[in-house]
Amino acid sequence: MALYADSSVAQDLGHKLPGLIGLDAARIPEPGLYVANRLVSYRANEIRARDGSVIPIRGLDMHALANGVGIAYTIKLKRSSFSLSMAASAPIARLRLNIEDRPEASFDRFGLTDIYIQPARLGWRNNRFDVVGAYSLYLPTDQSLLAGGKGLSSGHTTHQFSAGGTAYFKNDRTAFLTTLASYDNNRRKRNIDITRGDIFQIQGGAGVSLFDRRIETGVAGYWLRQVSADRGADLPPVLEGVRDRVYGIGPEVAVTMKTIRSQIRMRYEWDLGVQSRPRGNIFVVGVNFVAMRPQTPRTP
Fold this sequence. Notes:
- The chain has about 300 residues and is mainly beta.
- About 0% of the residues lie in helices and about 60% in strands.
- The chain has a twelve-stranded antiparallel beta barrel with strand order 3-4-5-7-8-9-10-11-12-13-14-15. Strands 1-2 form a two-stranded antiparallel sheet.
- The termini are far apart.
């Protein structure tokens, strides 16, 4: 992804796309093996400067489309209220940027982004609360564009630390408020002296389950802020001292089909309060399938 301002051309360094979790932010799934597919569409037609003002770029059209396939496994630790989850996913994406009367500044790229691995997510549950803490890892599949990469990888490893919880208003767990905070520690990009600044993000929302948990609906939101500036000898001068931020909100709905052990979840959110990044909207559609449930021991 590239940012263009007047005659200057600056490389975007792998901005985090928020709003991907929503009402599942800090809830603990039931024990089992899950297979998921998530389609994400992000579209923007303006870019905001570091003071929040619109950078005048006529005819800007940016569209990112990604599809990720993932697998997750949750087990309940014996004789306790704790659970352990592990997950991994690999997304393929297409990023297209068109600028009116500027064909030399437009591009269309397709390929793997970064592989996501979560080796450990510890959870604790009772009737009214879920509490989670996790470590995750983003691994690059290629070099960044600035270092000569051909795909859509950020070109750097990211260590992510997250913690959060969900409060349920009744013991039946049908109405809830969920929040997950995460900190991304970005390492130096491969084969180039650029290090993306660290990112702090909060995601979550409030929702309610209806019709014997077949329908879930609510409002999801996010808040993201870059807490340290990008750095390195090869950093483009136009990006020195820049720190991006964004928050957003939107509706979410999920439909559970118990007969085929699947759930479809949809979310649409609008970017607000944007600085130093594109301002757009995100649409997420996810399908989760329960591939295996552990057998419950029979009572003699």
